[in-house]
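Repro case for the chain-ordering regression, as requested:
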Amino acid sequence: MSSPRIGLLCGGPFAFQSITILALEKYLAGIAIGSSDMQTVGLLSSECERLGMPFLEIASKNETGLLGDWIEKVNPDYIFCICFPYKIPAELLRKKPERFINFHTGPLPAYRGPMPIFEVIRRGEKNSAISVHLMEEGFDTGAVIYEETVPLDVGETFTSLAIKLSERTAITVLNMAQMLEFGTSIPRTDQDPSEANFYPYPTEKEITIDWNSMQAESIISLINASYPWSGGAITGFDDETIRITQVKPLPFPSTSPAEPGTVLRKTAEQGLEISCLGGLSILALSFGSDRGNLGMEYLESVGLETGKRFSSL
Amino acid sequence: MQKIGILLPRSSYYNSIGFDMFEGLRAGLDKSGHGDVKIVTENIGFGADRQQVYRSAEKLLLEENAGIILAYVGHRTAQMLRPLFMSANRLLIVLDAGANLPQEWPVSPNMLYHSLHNSLGAYLAGRRAFHDGFVKGGMVSNYYDGGYLHIVGITNGFADSGGAICFNHATGHTPGEFKLDPLADHLKQYPDACLLPVFSGDFNEWFFRDMKALFPEKLPPMYVPPFAFEEMMLSNAVYPGDTVRGIAAWSKDLENAANKTFTAAITEAGREANLFSLLGWEGAFLAVEALAKMKEHKNNARSAGDQLKAFRFQSPRGEIYFASETNTTLSPMYEAHLEDDGTGHCRLKITGDAKEVAEAYSAMTAASLDNAISGWFNSYTCN
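-- result from build under test --
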């Protein structure tokens, strides 16, 4: 086919590099964003105005019905979805079968759901992926066109992996557009339901550290996976809810034996060595709460000192 | 019957490039005891027509059902083919001139690069210039060759060693626009500088001819990458003087058993061994191993590709092995210089092994590209 017109559904800045590359290569025909963030919406809106492209802001899941009119205006050959936060109405998917293509930020079918970046990190996976798949009415269920593996580094955090995936998505989006332009068909492989997992949006319990059952490496993974989107992994001290937001990438042998969750020392890096199961420790480097960042002075003022113990709420 | 597909290029200067690669591949299969493997070919021209390249690859995969595909394409075109090969669960072995740098693109598990390493040779040539005592240098290229990242290779190799690039000269790429005169002024200003020229094909012929004319008394010292030492071109090139040193990827005169077998096989087929028949010959060994790995791993290209990276073999240029972090083969490279062949034309003289090739490759590929990109789609030397 000639150069395909692509309408893009996105959720925010994660898609910016993809938008740029689709626009530069003259594939982009319109943008719809599922966000109410004024700055992001304003930026994309003015860019679309400059390029003479239809733009749509969808501020809540109740507004997805507006997509029908937007698609009429854009008249795309294909619609790419990159972290679009709302479910697309089934009648639209039925109206344009095999025309909606999702760029899922995790391996499929193992990591279906809205937060694959969190799930992949907290489960200590060595690789994640951009999974390009045809969209069906079910969440992340359509046949996979191809999967782009993205290795995780030691100590990978939610932010660092999101940046990595965003960059890789831009290349993947271009590859997909070229496949649509030059290929005679879209190859695909059905997902194997026996290997499928669906992870819903994480609950507070899932981002809470259980010092008595979790190994040091799992605690590090949970902290890396939980910040910044949730404010950090949750732990408790006395009546306070404290969030650990940053941690050294690897555990190390404890400097002294103690119950899991015990503060063993304050380090020169202004971090706290906290004991874990199996004679290992982690080094927590920064803390927060629902009110924002917490400095070491504050923690000391509430009595968090060597020998005191974090609780597992 | 097992099939190997190959996407063959066309080149105005190297007008037999496709035949050379095919003959190298065919002879390599014969000599490795796999003459029964069928070769299916598609012509992809200069490699710049993306539709043509994509359709050709699709045809070899879907219609011909080739088990492995070899393709002489650039990184940018290979990246375009990536989802097709991922979807088809097949391996693509890119036969690569090595004019770009692998860090420009992410590694794909089912795309492997088998390279002539012009950028790495350029990097080593830059290093060699510094180690020979030059602390100032000037990069010289044209609008065609300068569009590939081997120019980053040669300047980084020189600068990372401690040298300073004092000037750059990029000339046009048509006979009327090819001008080297500004080099005389540059070298007046920096008389101790060496030149770091990066050209291919006929541009090398023009470069050597015009340098001899521009500097009839004393040719400035220069350090060149492998494509300046391509021997078929050299036999037609005017010998410019005795100050042309650099790094070669291979020579027909290399003394080793694999090279003797290779050159004899190509001669027997009525052709002259060159870099492109070498690439096809080596591609045969890789393709045969890749077919075996695909079978062993039940046609899972990802696993097969992963295992293939442990493969080593003796080639006419020495032992080939993989730099696994970039899915790219490495091979020995050679220090060389030009000499007069007795008729006023050039002859390649290998003087020794290039040092620390693998270490240089790691250093070159670890460096930030600092936003340098190559915009060329066409396969290197195919214009």
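Ordering looks correct now. The two ends of chain B are 35 Å apart (CA to CA).
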